[in-house]
Amino acid sequence: MLSFNSKKHLLQFLAEDIGKGDITSALLPKRKITARIISRENAIVAGTKHAREMFGIMGCSAKILRKDGSTVKQNQTVMTITGDARKILACERTALNLLTRMSGIATMTNSLVKKIPNRRTRLYATRKTAPGLRVFDKEAVEIGGGKKHRLRLDEMVMIKDNHIAVGGSMLSLIKSAKKKHRKFEVEVENIQDAVLAAKEGATIIMLDNFTPSQIKRAIQTLKDQRLRDKVMIEASGGITSKNISRYAETGVDIISVGSITNSVKGIDMSLEI
Fold first, then answer.
1. Which of 146, 136, 2, 144 is nearest to 69 (CA)?
2. Which regions of the chain are under pLDDT 70?
3. Is 199 a catalytic residue?
4. CA–CA separation, 102 vs 90, rounded Å?
């Protein structure tokens, strides 16, 4: 179900594209038509509810034929739309832009999830999203089988290198975080800091730009000191479709990949009358 905030975004998207009115479609006669949105390639569909809502805002009726999370094959119809031709055409590009982007994210996420050889390790999104589209980008990640992680900065403390550069030391920031927050994450660049963060009560430790072999050594060190079961371990940085299986085999709990939202290729879809 769409939240109020989601609908507000959809209205903004339509206003951004339509402006004062679709002056080209205004040249057309008032005529009721039926159109189809067709996928030109195999994909995991995402964003259909939002596309349907946009057409609804314009006074048109849309029927979803391939639900979010389902697989669509080349040349299959994703949804049909009925209504005033001028209204459908005014909404066409905005609906397709969101639908193709979300489907691209879901498809890419799903392809990476399938390369993870165990059930313990989960794929997470990052905050590397397009401004204004974060809610939709991260929803698409979940549709593809991934997890959202932090949606906003106010959801959880995450102490990173630049925070440490300003704050003076990782330890001082951890102590400050512990006073105010039950859960917090710490980004580390070496095994020594990973051990320190675990001892100080970090909920999640992000091993930033560690190689798979370095991650295995870090996890073994935490096991040796009986700290492994007290924290979740996240691998981040340099992880691609070619090496994600090796990272998953290290025993990490989380793999975060920014490319699923910031380097996504939209799925080729078109609207045909």
1. 144
2. 1-5
3. no
4. 20
Q: In the prediction, which pLDDT does 150 show?
A: 84
Quote the CA–CA distance of 172 and 154 in Å, as a whole number. 20
Q: Are residues 66 and 155 in the same domain?
A: no
* 128 flagged as catalytic: yes
The sign of the torsion formed by the CA atoms of 117, 247, 142, 90 equals negative
Alpha-carbon gap, residue 263 to 265, rounded angstroms: 7
Q: What is the pLDDT of residue 5?
A: 64
Query: Mean pLDDT in the chain?
Result: 94
pTM value? Answer: 0.93
Q: How far is CA 251 from CA 188, 207, 223, 269, in A?
A: 17, 12, 12, 38
Residue 74 to residues 36, 45, 103, 113, 144, Cα–Cα distance (Å):
14, 12, 13, 22, 18
Annotated catalytic residue 179: no
Phi, then psi, of 115 in degrees rounded to 5: -90, -5
Distance separating alpha carbons of residues 273 and 261, to the nearest angstrom: 31
Q: Are residues 78 and 102 in the same domain?
A: yes
Task: Provide the 3-class DSSP secondary structure of residue 149.
Answer: coil
Rg of the chain over all Cα atoms, to the nearest angstrom:
22
8 catalytic per annotation: no
Q: Could you tell me the CATH number of the domain that includes residue 128?
A: 3.20.20.70
Domains: count for the chain: 2
**Whether residue 41 lies in the annotated active site:** no
Residue 217's domain comprises 113-262
On whether both 58 and 91 belong to a single domain, the answer is: yes
Which residue of the set 92, 139, 185, 187 is catalytic?
187
Per-residue pLDDT at 168: 86
Question: What CATH number did the domain enclosing 63 receive?
Answer: 3.90.1170.20
Instruction: Kindly name the residue from 67, 127, 147, 160 that is annotated as catalytic.
Output: 160
